[in-house]
Amino acid sequence: MDPITLYFVAVVGAGESEARQTVDPELAARVYSVAEAHPRGTVYGAALGARSGLLAAEVGGLKLPAYRGYAEALAPARSASQSIKGEAYFARMLLYATRSWTVQPYIFGGAAYTIGYNHEQGQCATCGAGYVPDWRNTTRAVVPYYGGGIEVPVSERVTIRAEIGRMPGAIDSHWTGRRDYTFGTVGIAVSF
Known about the structure:
Elements: E1 5-19, H1 25-29, E2 32-38, E3 40-52, E4 55-73, E5 78-96, E6 104-123, E7 134-153, E8 158-173, E9 177-191
Antiparallel strand pairs: 1-3, 1-9, 2-4, 3-4, 4-5, 5-6, 6-7, 7-8, 8-9
């Protein structure tokens, strides 16, 4: 049996979220004179892991890419902005192709506990005196976390990684629905 190697990994990268199609006919039928969405942002995190041979296990956390949106509508004239931020805490298993190659490809699968912070704020002068839409919600979910990557050893204790991961249904927001997250990261792992 191969010895167990413990390591710490830190990653940074970019990702985006994509909303699943809305099932609210009233919401889908609305017409907006301005509708902007900015679903891409930075992702970063860290994990602790243990590897033996072709198998590894990791636990860690990620800051998910932020989402920002803005819309304007008529009848009555109104506007709204939305921001969604989130984080994920995960446990996953990695399966490497080989230890003999300089570039070591791997796939991974596991689960993530996600927390999403949704804030929607609007302006509507004709909606009634003192009416200021300001809606917040926090969502939590356990979702699959899977993907793949490559690892390149640069010394006996240090490796560099590049990977792509996916968390479907990670965050649920009131108006834009459940969001799937995809991100790519690069990182450095140090064994100890």
